[in-house]
Amino acid sequence: MVLAELGTKISNALQKLNKAVVIDEAALEECLKEIATALLQADVNVKYVAKLRENIRIQFKIQADSGTNLRKLIQTSVVKELTKMLEADRKPFVPKKGKSNIVMFVGLQGSGKTTTCAKYAYYYRKKGWKTALVCADTFRAGAFDQLKQNATKIQVPFYGSYTETDPVQIAEEGVQHFKDERFEIIIVDTSGRHKQEQDLFNEMKQVEAHVKPDEIIFVMDSSIGQACYDQALAFRKAVNVGSVIITKLDGHAKGGGALSAVAATESPIIFIGLGERFDDFESFEAQSFIQRILGMGDIKKLFEVVKDAVNLEDQPKILEDIKSGKFTLRDLQSQFHSILKLGSLNQFMSMIPGLGTSILTKGNEQESITRIKRFLCMLDSMTSDELEGKAMLVQQRMVRIAKGSGTKLREVNDLIEEHKRLAKIVEKMGKMNLGKGNDIMSMTRHPGQMMKKMQNVVDPKMLQQMGGMGNIMNMMKEMGKMEGLGDMMKQFKKK
Ligand code: GDP
Ligand code: MG
After folding, report:
1. How far is the CA of 112 from the centre of ligand 1 (A)?
2. Per-residue pLDDT at 115 exceeds 60
3. How far apart are CA 427 and CA 433, in angstroms?
4. In terms of CB atoms within 10 Å, which end of the chain has fewer, N or C?
5. Mind giving me the DSSP string for 417-484?
6. Where in 281-414 does DSSP place strands (E)?
7. Most confident of the ranges 420-429, 432-441, 456-465
8. Taking ligand 2, which is a single-atom ion, which protein residues have CB atoms under 5 Å away?
9. Does residue 137's CB lie within 6 angstroms of at least one atom of ligand 1?
């Protein structure tokens, strides 16, 4: 994701503060300048950037003489202001279990509506909701076939017609059909036009009047950047848009512009699209998102992904590894295998604290996958003793591994270094929550206890990478609230 580059730049600017001898106004200004440049390069509106700088300056001035840790103050203010920039005050719609939630999708042609309907359906189906798709696009040739193909791939029932030309009628029939069958999420895909035409708005209004959706989701292509602001307002005026999904954030440099512009219209962004596949789709929450692109990890999201993976029976072993505090090269090998199977590698890796800036996530997704595959070749050339940490990987062995796997010695070195880094993180996290009867759930119930433990074992640098103590506490509290987490942990215990 291009936004990861933005994150790296901001994170680098913040890291410079750690090296600065004194934190004064000059140091602050230098840091702010770098952050502003990065934001402007990501197409964020000059006005918002100026506001962000001003707000951080004010915070700094207020507290400059109060004896607060100014490095930390700047860091927290930056995260806070960035979050504010991407957050709408209005709360998005949340579907209710056991009821028919009708969700209508609107947006221009080519914005990614049909694809996003399928992603949305897949997301809820995986979570156990009874989900269905209705194709009310009679405008675009082949629209029904496209939806049908998608629906079949994700195993979600669908409704549509090759002959009926009235979108209102199909939408109404389809919704009624699935309501009768007590479907919980009924998704209505509508047609788009190339521009914001009156025709399109009239059709949308009619469909809205007849299917009476509980929620209208506006799908928008992020490549138009700041122009998102006007488009989002126009659609909101025409129909009762409740929330927004931004697509194609995988491809270009205007992501920051799109996200901040939409948030400025006070429409909550609920998901983002990061590719053409059905799981290139993430629920969006401003703070999580910012922490992740800044390389601070996102435990909450990690758990969500792991939870979904458990349903897909392909669960990554990482939680067990974390519990045991041990992480051998063989664990890394199985980790790589499950990551490749899980897909969305960068997304997954960036959720693990401290990994956001790892060599594994450098470059684009394809590069990461290629790198992991090469690492797997090297791991395949190792003996059992080497994989299990019973044999030291001395130079001679490393040369043999490079030869055996057709790779370079330097790459073998990279792998070993990466493993060391990971093993250290896993060991620390293991120490953090191990002991009798301790699991991540009980940690969430006793955050105070956990905090003490953590401070004892985790070095300050790593703590900082994880977003500081306060952030971890928040994450833990959030995790405690998360639906289904308890069940998930039980599942892990059984295995
Ligand atoms: P619709 O006309 O609004 O229904 O748009 P479609 O769902 O047909 O999508 C238009 C094109 O955008 C298709 O080629 C999709 O594969 C592609 N697309 C949709 N979402 C994304 C995304 O998040 N990332 C990328 N790279 N492509 C996407
Ligand atoms: Mg479509």
Report:
1. 4
2. yes
3. 10
4. C
5. HHHHHHHHHHHHHHHHH-STT--HHHHHH-HHHHHHHHHHHS-HHHHHHTTHHHHHHHHHHHHHH-TT
6. 281-283
7. 420-429
8. 113-114
9. no
Closest by CA position to 382, among listed 370, 367, 397, 360 = 397
Q: Kindly report the pTM of this predicted structure.
A: 0.68
Ligand 1 lined by 115 (C-beta under 6 Å): yes
Position in ligand 1 atom list of the atom nearest CA 219: 3
Residues with Cβ within 8 Å of residue 493, at least 6 apart in sequence: 439
User: Distance from the CA of 120 to the center of ligand 1, in angstroms?
Assistant: 13
Ligand 2 centroid, distance to 3 Cα (angstroms)? 26
Using an 8 Å Cβ cutoff, are 329 and 419 in contact? yes
CATH topology of domain 3-86: Four Helix Bundle (Hemerythrin (Met), subunit A) (1.20.120)
Exposure string of 337-349, with b = 16+ CB inside 10 Å and e = fewer, is bebeebebbbbbb
Residues 120-166 have pLDDT tens digits of 999 999 888 999 999 999 888 889 999 999 999 999 999 999 998 99
Our answer on whether the CB atom of 2 is closer than 6 Å to any ligand 1 atom is: no
Domain layout of the chain by residue ranges: 3-86, 101-292, 297-493
Does the Cβ of 361 fall within 6 Å of ligand 1? no
Q: Is there an atom of ligand 1 within 6 Å of 110 CB?
A: yes
pLDDT digits (tens, 9 = 90+) for 282-305: 889 888 888 878 876 555 555 555
Q: Which residues pair with 134 in a beta bridge?
A: 159, 188
Between CA 14 and CA 293 the distance in angstroms is 13
Beta 269-273 vs 281-283: how paired, if at all? Answer: antiparallel
CA of residue 88 to ligand 1 center, whole Å:
25
Residue with tokens 């604290």, as numbered in its chain: 353
CATH 3.40.50.300 fits 101-292, yes or no: yes
CA 189–ligand 2 middle distance (angstroms):
7
Q: Which fold has domain 297-493?
A: 434 Repressor (Amino-terminal Domain) (1.10.260)
- Contact status, residue 113 vs residue 147, Cβ threshold 8 Å: no
Name the residue at shortest CA distance from atom 2 of ligand 1. 110
Q: For residue 114, how far is its CA from the centre of ligand 2 (angstroms)?
A: 4
Q: Is the CB of 167 under 6 A from ligand 1?
A: no
Pocket of ligand 1 contains residue 111 by CB under 6 Å: yes
